[in-house]
Amino acid sequence: DGYNYDGNAHAFASTYHSGIGTPQMYAMHPTEPAKRGGRPQYHMTQVRGFMMTDNRDTYLAGKRAY
User: Fold this and answer.
1) Can you spell out the DSSP letters for the chain?
2) Average per-residue pLDDT for the chain
3) CA-based diameter of the chain, in Å?
4) Model pTM?
5) What's the pLDDT tens digit per position in 33-52?
6) Cα–Cα–Cα angle for 39, 40, 43, rounded to 5 degrees
7) Which top-level group of life is the source organism from (predicted)?
């Protein structure tokens, strides 16, 4: 089926919640279908997040990450 079910992340995504000033990064990986011939399932795991309104150091760390 062409999928690699090794448990490692093969895609990454990020979001920004403007109401609270929080950028977050996620890793995504597929797992095998529950039933033979079924579709794989995808899982997102939060890798990191930054509360940009917390303090100067956290703001700068979040800015560098993005």
Assistant:
1) -----SS---EEEEEEETTTTEEEEEEEEEE--SSTT-PPEEEEEEEEE--TTT-HHHHHHHHHH-
2) 89
3) 51
4) 0.73
5) 989 889 999 999 999 999 98
6) 140
7) Eukaryota
Q: Report the C-alpha gap between 21 and 55 in whole angstroms.
A: 12
Which structure tokens are listed for 65?
A: 């990450």
Quote the CA–CA distance of 55 and 52 in Å, as a whole number.
7
Q: What are the structure tokens assigned to 29, written together? A: 């990986």
Q: What does the CA dihedral 45, 7, 10, 48 come to, rounded to 10 degrees?
A: 30
